[in-house]
Design a protein that fits this description.
It is a single chain. With about 180 residues, the protein is mainly alpha-helical. Helices cover about 55% and strands about 5% of the residues. It has six helices and two strands; from the N terminus they run H-H-H-H-H-H-E-E. It has a two-stranded antiparallel sheet. Helix 1 packs antiparallel against helix 3.
């Protein structure tokens, strides 16, 4: 399992590759179709190649947008995106196959990289050790460090004309088996 920083760097490098491929497919569809594995036949075919480029650019945008926000969501996106190169392999084979095996190997490598990133994604903990123990937590409680019990007036009765209530909270206890990542 990779560290979060290394994994995010590799994922953003993959986004750059998708951006370069997308730009190539949009700006120069003839050479890009040779890389894809299906030769162009007419002007309408170049439109479809450009659509593939826009798909790659959109995938780049999704990766860049999700990378700083949520690793689990990015992991799900990469898992679903692994279907794209597999579908591309099927399309290349259905159109008569490439003259050379290079396009099939590129699609297979793309699928392998996406699956590899999904498998090596860091397990991100939602910081359960920062959560309060549900057995000792009471809403409105005030905690201090150490084993001392803290007391503070509850704010739920303020302004209602009722006397202030007191809530007693025990020491903070972490649940076993939950550890935060540094």
């Amino acid at each position: 399992m990779l560290s979060r920083q290394i994994w995010l760097t590799l994922t953003l490098m993959l986004a750059v590759v998708f951006a370069v491929l997308g730009a190539l497919f949009v700006l120069a569809p003839e050479p890009a179709s040779a890389i894809f594995g299906v030769p162009l036949g007419s002007h309408a075919d170049s439109t479809y190649v450009r659509a593939l480029g826009i798909r790659d650019l959109a995938l780049c945008g999704f990766i860049v947008a999700l990378a700083p926000v949520s690793v689990p969501a990015l992991r799900r996106l990469l898992a679903a995106s692994a279907l794209i190169p597999l579908g591309d392999i099927v399309l290349v084979l259905l159109t008569g196959g490439p003259g050379a095996p290079l396009p099939l190997m590129l699609h297979a490598a793309s699928a392998a990289v996406l699956v590899g990133l999904v498998i090596t994604a860091p397990k991100i903990c939602r910081l359960p050790c920062l959560r309060r123990n549900p057995r000792s937590y009471r809403p409105g409680a005030y905690r201090r460090g150490g084993d001392r019990k803290a007391r503070r007036p509850s704010s739920r009765y303020r302004g209602s004309g009722q006397p202030l209530g007191w809530i007693t909270v025990g020491p903070r206890v972490e649940r076993p088996g939950h550890h935060c990542l540094p």
